[in-house]
C-alpha cells in the first residue's frame, strides 16, 4: 500500500497502515507560525494599551465640570456612589438646543449626584458645587444636605448663584434618571419659579429645547454603542453561566446521547430546535413590549408613570424581534422539510457513534480547547472593555460666553468654563478592529487545532483496523496532539487566518453596503444592482467553500503531515473525485449537526434572557440597558463551545468518509481497512451500494 493519500505517497515510503499516521514528518508552514506568534505579541501590546488608557466606567457614566468620571474614585473626590450626571444650569441646556447659539451640550456645567433632583413643593431647592475652598463640609455631609448649602453662602456667593454662575444652582425643572443622566423634563415647577423670581434671579428659559437637547445626547449612536459594550461587561456572571458552563454541559450531554441513543437523536434535535427558537423569539416579544408588561425602559428607578422616554435600544429590540420572527418561520419550515431525510442522517451519525465508542477519549478531549478558549475570552473581554473606553479626557476648546464661580480661586472665572470630553484618536479605532479580528482568528485557530487532533485520532482508529488492534496508538488523541504541536501548528495558523480574513472582508463589505443604503447611494440600474447582490452571494459561497476545504485539509494534515496548501490540494482532489459519494452521505448529517449547535446556542440565549430578567440586572448600578448584546454574546459563545464538542462527531464523519473513499479507491472498490462496525452501519442503510456507484 502506498499510503492513505493514494497518488500521494507517505514521506518515508513505508508500507503498512500504521506507517500512514506515524511516518517521519517535517515542520510545515513555519513562516505562518511565526506570523501567528507575532500576532499574539501584537495582541498583548494592543491590550496593554487598553488596560493603561481605558476605564470601563466611561462607557456608562458621564463627566462632571472638573473632568471626573461619575461613579469613580478621583484625587480630590471619591465619587463611587455618585453615578448620575446632572446639568445644573438650565439656561445652558436650553441654549445648546438652539441651532445658531454656538453653545454645545458638552460645554454645559455638569455634576455627579446620587439621585436626580426634583423641585420642592413649598420652597426652592438648590444643587451646589462640590464642597471645597471656604465651604468646609465633607462630601458625605454635602450628600446628606441634598447637595444644598445655599443658606450658608455669603451674600456675594448668593448673588453669583442668582446669576446662574454658581456655586449653587436652582432646581426648577424635575428630572428623571435616563441611562445615568438626569433628563430634564419641560415642566417647570411654578412654586420654584415664583421663589426664584422673588429672589431676583435671572430669567430662566422655558422651552422644549431643554428636553430635546439632553435626549439627543443620550440617544447618540456613540452613546448607545458604549452602553451596549458596558452591558456585556456588567453581565459577566451571565456570560460565565450561559455562555460557558451551560453549553459545556449541554454539549457533553448531546455527545453522550449520540453515543447511546443515536437513532432518536436527529428527531430529538429537530424537536428541541423548534421549541427553543420559538421560546427565544417570544422573549424578544416580551422585551419589545408586544406581549406582557416587561418591556425594556430607558428610565432607571421609580418615576412618574405618565412620563415616557424613547431610546434607540427600544427600536433595536423591536427590530431584533421582527428579525427573529422571520428566522423562526424559515427555521421551522426548513426543519419540517428535512423530516423525510432524517433516517439518512441517523445512518451517518451511527458512524460517529461507533468511533466515539471505540476511541473514548474523544468525548473528553474538547474540554482542553474549551478551557484554553475560556481563558482567552476572559482576557480578551477585559481588554475589549478597556479599549472601547480608552482615550484622553480633555477640556473642550469653546468660545462660549459663560462664567462660573471657582470655590478654590474664590472668584468668578470666565476663562475655563468649557466642559470636558473624551478625545478618541484614529489609532484607537484601528486597535479595536485589530482586537476584534484577533478574537476571530484565535477562535478559528483553536477550533482548527481541535479538528486536526480529532481527525488524527479517528484516522488512527480507521487505518489500524486492517491489522492487529495493538497498532492503534495508546490514547490516540494524545498521540495526535503531539504530532500537531510538533509539526503542524503553522499549517493550522494559515488555514484559520484565511477563514478569518475572508469572513472579515465580507463583514466590512456588508458594513459599507449598509452605509451606502442609509446614504441612498445604492446602484440605480438593475444591472448594477444585480452585480452588487451577485457579488455578495459569491463572497458568501467563497467563504463556505473555504471553510469546507479547510476542514478536509485539516484531516489530510493530521493524516499525512503535509503543509496546508498541499493538504488542501490533496483534499480537494479526493473530494472532487468522490463528490457524489461524500455529498449524499454528508449533507443531511451536517444539517442535523448544525441544528444541534443551534440548539445549544439557543438554550444559552434562552437562559441568558432568564438570568437578565432578575432584579440584579434591573437595579440602578447593574441595570442592563438592553438584553440584545449579552444575549448575542451568550448565543455566540454557546455556538463556539458546541462547535468544539460537535466537532468530534463532525470530524469523525468527515475523516471516516474520506478514509473510506480512499480505501475503496486503493483496493478496487472494496474498503480493506474499514472496521466491521462501520461496514455494518453502512449496510443497514444501504450506503455501501451508494458509495460504490
From TrEMBL:
GO cellular component, one term: plasma membrane
Coiled coil: none
Membrane topology of this protein: Multi-pass membrane protein
Species assigned in the record: Tagetes erecta (African marigold)
Family to which the UniProt record says this protein belongs: Belongs to the CTL (choline transporter-like) family.
Protein name: Choline transporter-like protein
Record function comment: Choline transporter.
Molecular function in Gene Ontology: transmembrane transporter activity
Compartments reported by the entry: Cell membrane; Membrane
Top-level taxon of origin: Eukaryota
Entry keywords, A to Z: Glycoprotein, Membrane, Transmembrane, Transmembrane helix
Bilayer-crossing regions: 30-51, 236-258, 264-286, 320-343, 363-385, 445-464, 591-612, 624-649
Matches recorded under Pfam families: Choline_transpo (PF04515)
